[in-house]
Write a structure and sequence with these properties.
A five-stranded parallel sheet has the order 2-1-3-4-5, with helices on both faces. It has helices at about 10-25, 35-45, 60-70, 85-95, 110-115; strands at about 1-5, 25-30, 50, 75-80, 100-105. It is α/β, with parallel strands linked by helices and about 120 residues long.
Length: about 120
């Protein structure tokens, strides 16, 4: 079964994303910030990470940079999921190693299409 780590400080967003991902037959884990996510990937690397930009403790960008600089032989696909919609943010995320970008709020169809684009849907 494919796995996804949802990294978002919003419990509501995590819950909505979990429901969508489970209907797409993903095993889902959750983290509430980048630091929590880094600890979780040390235990188990997911196939894909759904990543929020603005979080306390460690932002999505900080997490992404740490992830992409890590020595892990297998790197997950990363889909930024955020309200930041200007071209500068999108470009920065892609340059830092994000594979795709989705705007909040999102629905099942949008998320499913982004997962297909990155090759895990």
């Amino acid at each position: 079964m494919r796995t996804c780590l949802i990294v978002d400080d919003s419990k509501v967003i995590r819950k909505v994303a979990r429901r969508i991902l489970e209907t797409l037959e993903f095993a889902v884990e959750e983290a509430e910030d980048g630091r929590d996510a880094l600890q979780r990937i040390e235990l188990r690397m997911p196939d894909v990470i759904l990543l929020d930009w603005n979080m306390p403790v460690m932002s999505g960008m900080e997490f992404l940079r740490n992830l992409r600089q890590s020595p892990h032989s297998v790197q997950p696909k990363v889909v930024f999921c955020t309200t930041e919609n200007d071209i500068g943010h999108i470009r920065a995320a892609l340059e830092a190693g994000a594979d795709e970008y989705v705007m909040k709020p999102f629905d099942r169809e949008t998320l499913e299409s982004k997962l297909q684009i990155v090759g895990v849907g």
